[in-house]
């Protein structure tokens, strides 16, 4: 997705060979027009998948997920990272290890909001080692629902999350695929670079 | 806002005289069409305030804030509830006590994303005792920016947050104002009830 790649080049900050900071438009400050375009792009890519529900995880997944949900005409459910006082019974729960934060969170979704006949599109901001996406798939599978696809805003293609997910048979669409962040430079994977030209 | 009141009557759950659960469309599952209408309503109410930035707090503030930002043509910044590894320097920080969760969180916003000349609209999902809104105002004021208004999706008008904020001189607009939750029934404040008829 050209608009997103350009935004990453212009406003992303490479902090190390592993870390791309996109706090300027996705993870802290949010550009709503870009989110709307991202929502439309997910809707285009998964238009034949008969999506009935979008599942994401707080907090940075919410903006792109809600914009996509608006396009699909479905609701979003966002997984919480820990239980709150008013949300403790009747939950699907999975454990997710965050390499960035070096901690394990329980993520949870109320059983009320995913059903067996749902075709779920999982949306998240980043895909690196795949832990969050695998946790979300686990929640959807606990409900007996179908994971119809995974939509990622930015995939760090040099980490193994993408291949783990694709090997499990699920369709993964990433709107920007980063081949490497070496030497402080963002390099996109080949077909994505071609798209920009 | 009639659409929101109807949604609360239909899908909200009164858990006690103090607690209204709206996990069906705002705090866990999100109805994106309703969020879009909420964004439009905020844009209408604050249209003369020359808003340049929207500030909210993760997680449930993000959806209404992003939709409002789209209408205003500005960006959103969401305050984080604790520091992450890639976001620790150069932050405005305030303490917020949550009565619901019975814990104090540090909320923070990067100094990069609020400037002295910003006219900020603060948006949040709920207003009860006002702690979160006061914390967000504090962050905006630390930046030397102007709090041009506070937009709330659901105000529990029987708690004192609304009067605390209004007494401080800031304009507060709540799209649904709840007079009481006694006896398991949602009662809206007078002018809101009149609006429904």
Automatic annotation (TrEMBL), chains A, B:
Subcellular location: Cytoplasm
Short name of one Pfam family: Pribosyltran
Highest taxon of source: Bacteria
Pathway connected to this protein: Purine metabolism; XMP biosynthesis via salvage pathway; XMP from xanthine: step 1/1
Residues noted as binding 5-phospho-alpha-D-ribose 1-diphosphate in the record, renumbered to the chain: 128-132
SUPFAM superfamilies given in the database record: PRTase-like
Enzyme Commission (EC) number: 2.4.2.22
Alphabetically ordered keywords of this record: Cytoplasm, Glycosyltransferase, Purine salvage, Transferase
NCBIfam families to which the protein is assigned, alphabetical: PRK09219.1, XPRTase
Family: Belongs to the purine/pyrimidine phosphoribosyltransferase family. Xpt subfamily.
Subunit-structure text: Homodimer.
Designated name of the protein: Xanthine phosphoribosyltransferase
Gene for this chain: xpt
């Amino acid at each position: 997705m050209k608009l997103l790649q350009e935004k990453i080049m212009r406003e992303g900050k490479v902090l190390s060979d592993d870390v791309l900071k996109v706090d300027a438009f996705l993870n802290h400050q949010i550009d709503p027009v870009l989110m709307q375009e991202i929502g439309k792009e997910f809707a285009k890519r998964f238009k034949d998948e008969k999506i009935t529900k979008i599942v994401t995880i707080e907090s940075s997944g919410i903006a792109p997920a809600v914009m996509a949900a608006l396009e699909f005409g479905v609701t979003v459910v966002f997984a919480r990272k820990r239980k709150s006082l008013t949300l403790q019974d009747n939950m699907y729960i999975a454990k997710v290890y965050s390499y960035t934060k070096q901690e394990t969170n329980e993520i949870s979704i109320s059983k009320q909001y995913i059903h067996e006949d749902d075709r779920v599109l999982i949306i998240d901001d980043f895909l690196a080692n795949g832990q969050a996406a695998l946790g979300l798939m686990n929640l959807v599978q606990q409900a007996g629902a179908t994971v119809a696809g995974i939509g990622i805003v930015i995939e760090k293609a040099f980490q193994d999350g993408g291949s783990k997910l694709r090997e499990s048979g699920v369709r993964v669409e990433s709107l920007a695929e980063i081949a490497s962040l070496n030497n402080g430079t963002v390099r996109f994977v080949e077909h994505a670079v071609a798209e920009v030209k």
